[in-house]
Automatic annotation (TrEMBL):
Stretches assigned to coiled coil: 44-120
Membrane-traversing stretches: 121-142
Keywords carried by this UniProt record: Coiled coil, Membrane, Transmembrane, Transmembrane helix
Protein's UniProt name: Uncharacterized protein
Keyword Transmembrane applies: yes
Amino acid sequence: MPKAPFLVSTLLFMSLLFLLFPHQVAEAGMWSNIKGIFSAPEKIDALEQQYMDAKQQLDAQKEQLTETLQSAEQYAARQEELMQQNEQFRKTNEQLMEQNNTLIQEMEQMKQKQASFTQKLINTALIIMILIFAYILSLRVWRYLVWRKQKHASRGV
């Protein structure tokens, strides 16, 4: 039986140690546990409501992200469309510039032709005027010679 006093003394010593060292006070008694059991549905409802709110927020964010993504896709599509239009306008502009250069060359050729025609017309008019003047002058000279000849002929008779 010597073991029994040792066991009792160890238990007594452990009890004293347990009382001397500070420990946390348990706040929940049996009554609060029972209350907790009965208030569990309210807590579950509150958690469920928080879950539903979080789910709604997540759905709203998802919808907003989807709209943003659609807007970005529309913007990218519009950007691509504008790039294609810009390329078409650039090609059209190059074609118009080539046409413009061709028309400018044709216009310069027409101006040269017109200047050449005008010069030919002036030369022709000048030649005609010289010929008319020469004709008139030759007529005068011929009349003068005829008059002189007749004057000479009439003196000799």
